[in-house]
Amino acid sequence: MQLKTTAEVWGSVAKFLHWSIAILVILMMIGGKTMGDLPNGPDKMWVYSMHKSMGLTILALMLLRLVWRLFDPRPAAPPGLGKLARTASRTVHASFYVLLIVMPISGWLYNSASNFPLKWFGLFSVPALSGPDKELKHFAHEVHETVFLIILGVLVLHVAAALKHHFIDRDSVLRRMLPFVRPRSGDTR
Ligand code: HEM
Fold first, then answer.
1. Whose CA is nearest to atom 30 of ligand 1?
2. Ordered domains of the chain (ranges, CATH)
């Protein structure tokens, strides 16, 4: 198992962070949009507390990913990839870092300004980012909703680009991020 990324393939740490965050984010986006419609009661409270704990986990994983990325540069771009495509890809990836850090922080801030309790999976209390504050609560809620829509747009672009690389350009861009897949001989990039 190759922990670090090489010129040909992402390392297993980068792959683990990529896919665990991807799965959690998709679950969070679906859960976040539907949990408000649940009937009031203990089940709804449980879903909300899972949402908050998983969101904080995404924040921790994103910070870890950011630090790891500083020591583990990306594989080389596929040969023949134009300057525009390269810039687009870097912009999409950089925006994911920003959005997936702002998203959980805005949820955390909303929760703090609403004066709701916060316990990570019921194990330990997480400090509030602010005291109760109506305006801040409104602002954080707006950010949480708006960033959700932006993430959705960026996610569509990201998935479309990965599929285009795989099925149209037929390069190794998607394959080299898939778990348990080794680069094929001849995959120089
Ligand atoms: C990447 C992480 C996260 C994602 C993808 C996410 C996603 C969402 C989405 C899609 C909604 C529905 C927004 C809407 O109505 O348009 C939502 C609502 C909510 N989120 Fe998050 N969330 C994340 C992190 C967090 C965190 C860390 C907390 C708190 C610690 C949190 C607290 C909440 C709360 C309380 C609501 C309900 C707001 C309301 O009652 O209207 N979220 N989230």
1. 108
2. 12-177 (1.20.950.20)
